[in-house]
Amino acid sequence: MKRSLWLLAPVLAAVAFAFGPEKKVVGATAVIHATKGQTVSGVVKLEAVDGGVKLTWDLKGLAPGKHGFHIHEFGDCNCDDGKCAGGHFNPDGKKHGGPATAERHAGDLGNIEAGADGSSKGEMTDKGLALHGERSIIGRAVILHEKEDDMATDPTGNAGARIGIGVIGISKEQ
Ligand code: CU
Ligand code: ZN
Questions:
Q1: Is 13 inside any structural domain?
Q2: Which residues are catalytic?
Q3: What are phi and psi of 137, to 5 degrees?
Q4: Cα of 90 to ligand 2 centre, how many Å?
């Protein structure tokens, strides 16, 4: 082969890399911190599973009872009240609902429930979310609310203040 062609080899390798298959994110973590005057803390782990995302949470410092649990559009924590996170993640342009309603924002995950000790642990899998592609929630926010989400009132579920927020970041592959 001519020497000039060999010189092209690194260029061709770089092109192949750039257009090669995207490495998919399989796991993510959102560390939840309290908004101003609130007390919730904990972690939400997210895992890419067949057809969706599995969320596993371990939280404390909550008032006993149900709390709205959503993915909000922006992973921006730079506001005392959590409002920089924008509204519920809504790539389909729908109205508010819950995980089991036909009409819903993709980010509508219903409620989590805290026990008498203020802690909540659990898991759920949601089919409308992803960790890659156009439904990706990487870089968006998990938000916990003061009150129960009624899973009907548009656009907020009437869930009250934003008491906790965590940005969804890529985790090291296990
Ligand atoms: Cu919310
Ligand atoms: Zn919603």
A1: no
A2: 70, 72, 88, 96, 105, 108, 145, 162
A3: -105, 10
A4: 8
Peptide bond into 155 cis (omega under 30): yes
Ligand closest to Cα of 74 equals 1
Task: Give the C-alpha separation, 20 to 23, whole Å.
Answer: 9
149 found inside a domain:
yes
Q: What is the CATH number of the domain that holds 131?
A: 2.60.40.200
Gap from CA of 7 to ligand 1 centroid (Å): 55
Full residue range of the structural domain in which residue 49 is found: 23-173
Give me the tens of pLDDT residue by residue for the chain, a chain 174 residues long: 555 655 666 665 665 566 666 678 999 999 999 999 999 999 999 999 998 999 999 999 999 999 999 999 999 999 999 999 999 999 999 999 999 999 999 999 999 999 999 999 999 999 999 999 999 999 999 999 999 999 999 999 999 999 999 999 999 987
What are the φ and ψ backbone dihedral angles of 43, each rounded to 5 degrees? -135, 140
Q: Domain count for the chain, please give it.
A: 1
In a domain, 40, yes or no: yes
Would residue 7 count as lying in a domain?
Answer: no
Query: To the nearest 10°, the Cα dihedral for 155, 74, 32, 157?
Result: 0
pTM of the model: 0.87
CA of 88 to the centre of ligand 1 (A): 6
